[in-house]
Amino acid sequence: MNNKIQSKVLSVSNVTDSAYVLRLERNGFEFKAGQYLVLSIPGERKAREYSIYSSETDNYIELLIKEVDPGEMSRQLKYLKVGAKVEISGPFGYFILSNDAVANNTPVVFVATGTGISPFRSIIRSNPALNYKVLHGVRYKTEAYHYTDYEEGRYQLCSSRENGIGYKGRVTDFISDNGINKNALYYLCGNSAMINDVTDLLEERGILPDQIKTEVFF
Fold first, then answer.
1. Phi, psi (degrees; rounded to nearest 5) at 35
2. How many domains does the structure of the chain reveal?
3. Would you tell me which of 10, 55, 171, 213 could form a disulfide with 23, CB atoms 3.0–4.6 Å apart?
4. pLDDT for the residue 131
5. HEC readout, the chain
6. How does pLDDT run across 27-74, given as a tens digit for each residue?
7. 108 in Cβ contact with 189 (< 8 Å)
8. Are residues 79 and 110 in the same domain?
9. Which pLDDT value is given to residue 100?
10. How many CB atoms neighbour CB 183 within 10 A?
11. Among 29, 63, 92, where does a domain finish?
């Protein structure tokens, strides 16, 4: 059931020069980890979709947002004051964890680029017993958003433009170099080029289509 509620800004926290976390009052808003909402500012015509970054049990809603060109909503949201009102609609989407994944200890591999890690953080924080691995493709190591939130050994950064923490190269390179788990479920979220490339690579290596779920951010 979709709801439309008003919420107040609790905080805006910069993560990098261009990315920030917007924390909002939850006000009874219910969702499944992996879903997204539509956010708007009262009186404005613009609205944007954002995957939820916080867990199902947090008493607030968090969104990981990357600021884009001036004039876009992402810039307006960054400069909202604490207490400012926004409107939330949703939740939407079916990019959620299989009911059997936790119960059966099924290995789950999350493959993300940039802020595409948002639904995965929500899923992982909502399911502490999950048997997971995160592959996170970024350009620079500063974009390893909240990587210390993940259990040691379960988060793999893939940095395409610099050496640093993690692997130097794209997520497709990492998968090619390190192999795959044919028993795992694969969840892909981020830019369409990555999703197409990783899907092709997985299927070439014997992963069945029903083992792959995708969510295109841009």
1. -85, 170
2. 2
3. 10
4. 95
5. CCEEEEEEEEEEEECCCCEEEEEEECCCCCCCCCCEEEEECCCCCCEEEEECCCCCCCCEEEEEEECCCCCCHHHHHHCCCCCCEEEEEEEECCCCCCHHHHHCCCCEEEEEEHHHHHHHHHHHHHCCCCCEEEEEEECCHHHCCCHHHCCCCCEEEEECCCCCCCEECCHHHHHHHHCCCCCCEEEEEECHHHHHHHHHHHHHCCCCHHHEEEEECC
6. 999 999 999 999 999 888 889 999 999 999 999 999 999 988 765 888
7. no
8. no
9. 83
10. 9
11. 92
Pull the structure tokens for residue 214. Answer: 């995708």
CB 109 within 8 A of CB 187: yes
Q: Tokens 């009262």 correspond to what residue?
A: 42
Q: Give the predicted TM-score (pTM) of the model.
A: 0.94
Query: Which stretches of the chain drop beneath a pLDDT of 70?
Result: 1-2, 70-71, 164, 218
- CA-to-CA distance for 52 and 118, rounded, in angstroms? 6
Q: Check whether residue 104 and residue 153 sit in a common domain.
A: yes
At 149 the pLDDT is 94
Output the pLDDT for position 72. 80
The β-bridge relationship of strands 212-216 and 132-138 is: unpaired
Type of residue at 103: A
* Residue range of the domain that includes 24: 3-92
| Cα–Cα dist 130/98, whole Å | 11
Query: Is residue 48 located within the same domain as residue 106?
Result: no
Q: Is the peptide bond before 70 cis (omega within 30 degrees of 0)?
A: no
Q: What does the block give as tokens for 115? A: 């802020």
- d(C-alpha 5, C-alpha 19), whole Å: 25
